[in-house]
Amino acid sequence: MSATQELRGLSAALDAAVDICARCGFCKTGCPTYPFGGGFETFSPRAKVHFLREFAMGREALTPEWSDRFFRCTTCERCETVCQTDIPLIRLWESMRERLVRQGLGPLPAQKRMMENAAAFGNPYGESPSTQTRWMLPEHAPVEGTDILVFGGCTASYRMPAMLQKGVTILTRLGIPFSYAGGEEHCCGSPLLRTGQVEGATGLIGRNLDLFARRKARTIVTPCGGCSKTLKKDYPVHAKSLGKPFDVEVLHVSELYVRLLREGRLVPSGRVERVVTFHDPCHVGRSQGLFEEPRELLGAIPGLRLTEMQRSRTESRCCGAGGGVKAGYPEMAAAIALDRLQEAVDTGADTLVTMCPFCQGSFSQAIRESGAKIALAGLEDLLFESLWPARAA
Length: 393
Ligand code: SF4
Ligand code: SF4
Description:
Layout: H1 12-19, H2 26-30, H3 45-56, H4 64-71, H5 78-82, H6 89-102, H7 109-121, E1 148-150, H8 154-159, H9 161-173, E2 179-180, H10 190-194, H11 198-214, E3 219-222, H12 225-242, E4 249-252, H13 253-262, E5 275-278, H14 285-288, H15 292-299, E6 305-306, H16 325-328, H17 330-346, E7 351-354, H18 357-370, E8 375-378, H19 379-387
Parallel strand pairs: 1-2, 1-3, 3-4, 5-6, 5-7, 7-8
Helix pairs in contact: 9-19, 11-12, 13-15, 17-18
The structure holds iron/sulfur cluster (SF4) (2 copies).
């Protein structure tokens, strides 16, 4: 029997994974939160894996300090990407957070508030659901009888409505029929799943699954990295355990745009004279493997030149917002965003482009606070500018 099989709450496969760590430390190299631990090894992913083994052997106990280490993680997946032994590190971190929550050693107060807000209002921000549709324009009238459902997501709907508005305007003008469940859409559950609050997430997921079934959705499109990852990877598992159907194709909106581009239905013809650099959102890039799609779209825009940051695609640096870190450790999240912003500035690009409302929020704050001379744009902004130059404003 594996020495780690006492690691209750983790599956046997995850238990075994703890045993195979080679202690190489590669996972430390790209971890965005490790440098904020003052050089102490206990802040590294490697140390956390080692702790899990020691804990399983009964030689370590769960403490508030270890809880802090496990919650100081943006779930950016960089460690898992570089790990030579293929340990499912994200599942380890999330399983451990779940256990810490069960034992009363988590989540952080701000993360707990997200759960309370989601339970009371259906979104982690505590906003009235009646404002979920405020981004909609008259031209966005949803269509009855379509099986394409736009899932705005809480961050885009309540914090970045302009991003959602522009993205949906593109779909509308290209004649893509969609329905929208504004006011009925609940948080996808991502912020709660990433912070170990699985029970709270399950209720939200169940309500959304019922909504998708009522709407007869066969394709769900969302502009959010966190929502698209959660809908693709977590919903099938939860739907099965809840006994609810989920026979749905989930698309990050960039996947739909690139599909339309290849079909010749999205034709960016207006020149956009900009030098841009692209930030791969962790939960779109590393989580979903969508690295080339945004670059194909940017490459199709006449006049636009892409210059890559030192770390891009699988090596991309996190914006600092994921895994509940922006709520739980806002100063660290802001510093991580500044670090990534500097990489963007160093390319000499005039515009930093991304395609996730969390990343947009992080960089918007970083630019505001640092005064960096770089513009921020969503992928949809540049597409819109090229598709309808005269109406871009
Ligand atoms: S997921 Fe990202 S932040 Fe978390 S331990 Fe791995 S590299 Fe560090
Ligand atoms: S990269 Fe993988 S094998 Fe190496 S120390 Fe980190 S978890 Fe262990």
